[in-house]
Amino acid sequence: MSATSPQQLAVRVAAVFAFSLALLKGVAFLQTGSVALLASLVDSLLDGLASVVNLIAIRYAMVPADDGHRFGHGKAEPLAALAQTAFIAGSGVFVLLEAARRYTLDEPVTTQPALGIGVMLIAIVGTAALVLYQRRVARKTGSLVVEADSLHYLSDMLSNVAVLAALILASQPALWWVDPLAAICVAIYVLHSAYAVGQRALGQLMDHELPGELREDILKAAQQEPGVLGVHDLKTRAAGPYRFVQLHLELDAAQTLEAAHSISDRVAVRVRQACPQAQVIIHQDPVRSEP
């Protein structure tokens, strides 16, 4: 992948946006003291760090296979994601503790709530534009990493809306409790995201099978090829942007090796249509007809 590829450009734009937003939120937090805004600030910092790690992981994962890594470097992506999970979970716990402390101190948001409201409006509009851009890149390139990133920022936009509502309501002295409550909600969302990311990363690192629906599509594609008498022992896994498919084809033992090889090649094409960019390994099992 070139250094100017749409995938990498989308990740770089996301990183710059996240760090710029974190800076604005930091200034607003110092002025407002909003713990919900602090939670959103931590989330934006993590978004920026995640995008930087994603950029590094994408570049390394796309390095072609070599003598030491015959299956490529695709697992760099889930390894990076697993490392991020620890930081994301830690930030969620930090925000929960800070929100609990705010409840015990009974501290309202007292200074310049308008600044925080303005920053969150910028965050919502900017994140919406980023999501639209990332989705366009994902559709154009088929990049699963960019598609997943766009879903993550879409969730962030919803949490920004919650923080905006908290800032508006918490500016009223009687509703001071809304601010730490919103922080708790954002923290729970962050912890849930950490769990989801960690689960997917571990699945790839442990060579978990591809989704059942995709496996069914692969089997159907292989069985549709004329000359295929049966398909069994399907094995699948993922490693970052790569998919690996292994299966056994039952073929007529009376035909020539060349004919069997041609059928296998056509099956591989069908499988890659059902599972794009898959690396397909096919074992041919001869089947003799009953006398």
Kindly describe this structure.
It is a single chain. The protein has eight helices and three strands. The protein is mainly alpha-helical and 291 residues long. It folds into two domains: 6-205, Alpha-lytic protease prodomain-like; 212-287, 2-Layer Sandwich (Alpha-Beta Plaits), CATH 3.30.70. A three-stranded mixed β-sheet has the order 1-2-3. Helix 2 (35-61) packs antiparallel against helix 5 (144-170), helix 3 (76-105) packs antiparallel against helix 6 and helix 7 (212-223) packs antiparallel against helix 8. The radius of gyration is 25 Å and the shape is elongated.
Which short descriptors sum up this protein?
291 residues, mainly alpha, 2 domains, 8 helices, 11% strand, elongated
Structure summary:
The chain is mainly α. The protein is 68% helix and 11% strand. The protein has helices spanning 6-32, 35-61, 76-105, 113-141, 144-170, 178-205, 212-223, 257-274; strands at residues 228-239, 242-252, 278-287.
What's the layout of helices and strands?
Layout: H1 6-32, H2 35-61, H3 76-105, H4 113-141, H5 144-170, H6 178-205, H7 212-223, E1 228-239, E2 242-252, H8 257-274, E3 278-287
Parallel strand pairs: 2-3
Antiparallel strand pairs: 1-2
Helix pairs in contact: 1-2, 1-4, 2-3, 2-5, 2-6, 3-6, 4-5, 5-6, 7-8
